[in-house]
Design a protein that fits this description.
Strand content: 5-15%
CATH superfamily: P-loop containing nucleotide triphosphate hydrolases
CATH topology: Rossmann fold
CATH architecture: 3-Layer(aba) Sandwich
Largest sheet: 5 strands, parallel
Mean pLDDT: 94
Order of helices and strands: EHEHHHHEEHHHEH
Low-confidence stretches: none
Radius of gyration: 17 Å
Number of domains: 1
Helix content: 40-55%
Shape: globular
Strand order of the largest sheet: 2-3-1-4-5
Structural class: alpha/beta
Amino acid sequence: MLKIGITGGIGTGKSFVSKIFKSMGVPFYDADKEAKDIMTKSDIVRRGLIDAFGSETYREDGALNRKWLADKVFKDPEKLQVLNGIVHPVVIQSAVDWAEKQKGAYSLKEAALLYESGSYQSLDYTILVAAPLELRIKRVMKRDNVSEEEVLDRMSRQMSEEEKKGYADFIVVNDEIAPLLPQVLAIHHKLMEK
């Protein structure tokens, strides 16, 4: 079975495109959702985060103190790198273990930081969902009820779309002009042939 990754910058619509693949019966792993679960449930990750950031990382009820941790790491690249160094290896291994249990021609792993985390290296092919910058900004402003400055700040912490294109085996253009379904079906058929 082929292991396929799908990614895209904030506001590109990677989750929407992933749902199209999922609706066709493709086994689907949401790395960002799984990472949130792992940060709460994995003793190894829990200990690593507390050692790195302190006991305030988790609330008294055991839940991850997300806002506190986000405030601590997202403005400090070194702390973000520490966080990713603790969480990413466990999530990558979780995805590998999950993929090995799936049936079918291929499985799909959605991850926002597919290239940045290095997890693309454990995959056979990757799909990049791309969209024009102005459209991405509008989508995120509407979805998250945030300002353009906040969206641009988030984008500045991600790998550029141009850089991601250099890694991608397939690109889906989600510009609200080119129909998505024919693009997804074309990739699906190519993957089924492989």
